[in-house]
Amino acid sequence: MSSDTWLVAGLGNPGPGYAHNRHNVGQMVVDELAARIGGKFKTHSSRAQILEGRMGIGGPRIILAKPMTFMNLSGGPVANLAKFFGIDPDHVIAVHDEIDIPFDTVKLKRGGGEGGHNGLRDMSKALGTKDYLRVRVGVGRPPGRMDTADYVLKDFSKDEKKDLAFLVDTSADVVEELVHHGLDSAQRKFHVF
């Protein structure tokens, strides 16, 4: 497999009951990328839905993936897909919700800690490294004393929904920039200081 192949995993929980939760914003971004590429997701033996395509005409090959396990068990499907397609961890991108970033903000990084995110923790364990790329989609912190798990398993608020399509669209742009031009370029273009 070419080193020009990328695996983009949108983290979330399976099923329609979770589809619009904050925790599933990673899958929303992957759905947006799928709409841009064209085609339909198919079930893969790795316990994920995948869509294979190219990012732009003659662009890099991309495997979009939505693990069909619960968030805390995202690592197995992602690691199995990486192995199946011969993709090294430096070409794996996790797209996920991030409570430590304000809603409507997107940040990127390679490696580092998981910040209490169990989906990332499971990915790091399954891949055997933390050295993969992350597109961190800000969902903000829970209000007051609300439990973090309860917060991320709720749908976006009415006010947030007004800007959600823009956030998802921007996050998809970030993934495209990352794949085409690398981390430094994407950080320069999309990080607001």
Automatic annotation (TrEMBL):
- Catalytic function, reaction form: an N-acyl-L-alpha-aminoacyl-tRNA + H2O = an N-acyl-L-amino acid + a tRNA + H(+)
Q: Which domain of life is it from?
A: Bacteria
Among InterPro entries, the record links this protein to:
Pept_tRNA_hydro, Pept_tRNA_hydro_CS, Pept_tRNA_hydro_sf
Annotated positions binding tRNA: 18, 70, 72, 118
GO process terms (BP) = protein quality control for misfolded or incompletely synthesized proteins; rescue of stalled ribosome
Q: Which residues does the entry assign to the active site, renumbered to this chain?
A: 23
Keywords, comma-separated and alphabetical: Cytoplasm, Hydrolase, RNA-binding, tRNA-binding
> Which intervals of the chain form a coiled coil?
none
Say where the protein is mainly found: cytoplasm
PROSITE patterns per the UniProt record, alphabetical: PEPT_TRNA_HYDROL_1, PEPT_TRNA_HYDROL_2
Question: Site Stabilizes the basic form of H active site to accept a proton: which residues?
Answer: 97
Query: GO molecular function: any one?
Result: peptidyl-tRNA hydrolase activity
Q: Name one Pfam family in it.
A: Pept_tRNA_hydro
Site residues (Discriminates between blocked and unblocked aminoacyl-tRNA), renumbered to this chain: 13
Question: Where is it located?
Answer: Cytoplasm
Give the E.C. number(s). 3.1.1.29
Q: Does the keyword Manganese apply?
A: no
Report the enzyme's class at the first EC level: hydrolase
**An example Gene Ontology cellular component term from the record?**
cytoplasm
What function does this protein fulfil? Catalyzes the release of premature peptidyl moieties from peptidyl-tRNA molecules trapped in stalled 50S ribosomal subunits, and thus maintains levels of free tRNAs and 50S ribosomes. Hydrolyzes ribosome-free peptidyl-tRNAs (with 1 or more amino acids incorporated), which drop off the ribosome during protein synthesis, or as a result of ribosome stalling.
The family this protein is said to belong to: Belongs to the PTH family.
- Identify the PANTHER family for this entry: PEPTIDYL-TRNA HYDROLASE
Q: What is the protein's given name? A: Peptidyl-tRNA hydrolase
Which organism is the protein's source? Answer: Paeniglutamicibacter gangotriensis Lz1y
**What lineage does UniProt assign to this protein's organism?**
Bacteria, Bacillati, Actinomycetota, Actinomycetes, Micrococcales
